[in-house]
Amino acid sequence: MMWIQRSGARYPGGEGAGIETRHAFSFSGYYDPGNVRFGTLVACNEERLAPGAGFAEHPHRDMEIVTWVVEGELTHEDSTGARTVVRPGDVQRLSAGSGVRHTERNAGTEPLTFVQMWLMPGPGAATDPAYEVVRGIADGTPYALERTEAVLHVRRLVDGERTALPDVPWVYAHAVRGAARIGGETLTPGDAARISAAEGLEVRAEGPAELLIWEMHAEPGYG
């Protein structure tokens, strides 16, 4: 089964001047009991920060936070000691564990757009916070989250190119750039497909396209 969430259907949010946010799931002040997660994915936020704007230091715990920069540069600082600038093509992961604090801001002179995705770790996951940036991840290289049964696939497709979707219980495909077709539906930037029990499906690019594709093998476990 596949459900498409269009970019315009995302819930608007934001905090402070120069910040524009679009939420795919219940988040912060918005709650929809029928839209709290998909597989282990509990947030997929599109963030747009004007030059100089950012999120002040704030805490997280028991969450895997993966960030993909679309344009601009994201300056990240956290209580693990990480001080980095994340650029398009980099995958950033912050494992909150038992607790971590961080800031995110646009310290550059150009607008910043990024997609941030939160996934719940499984029971028994490591409790120490951890941070990692993979620079310039290659197309098609799988990025597995150690603390949850999920794998991110970054796909950059040329016009007409096809790629198979994983045959797994939960697939989440987010269109970053261009247009791509899945099962008779075309995704454009900001659109996402949630697919349950995927089997034999593929994506076909309609012009150059970039997608973030999550394969998830389990729902969150508690206790």
Automatic annotation (TrEMBL):
- Pirin N-terminal domain location is 17-119
Which residue ranges does the record assign to the Quercetin 2,3-dioxygenase C-terminal cupin domain?
A: 171-216
Extract the Pfam families matched here: Pirin (PF02678), Pirin_C_2 (PF17954)
Which residue ranges run through the membrane?
Answer: none
Q: What Gene3D superfamilies does the record point to?
A: Jelly Rolls
Kindly give the InterPro entries that the UniProt entry links to this protein. Pirin (IPR012093), Pirin_N_dom (IPR003829), Quercetinase_C (IPR041602), RmlC-like_jellyroll (IPR014710), RmlC_Cupin_sf (IPR011051)
Q: Which family does it belong to?
A: Belongs to the pirin family.
Put simply, this protein is called: Redox-sensitive bicupin YhaK (Pirin superfamily)
What is the originating organism of this protein? Streptomyces iranensis
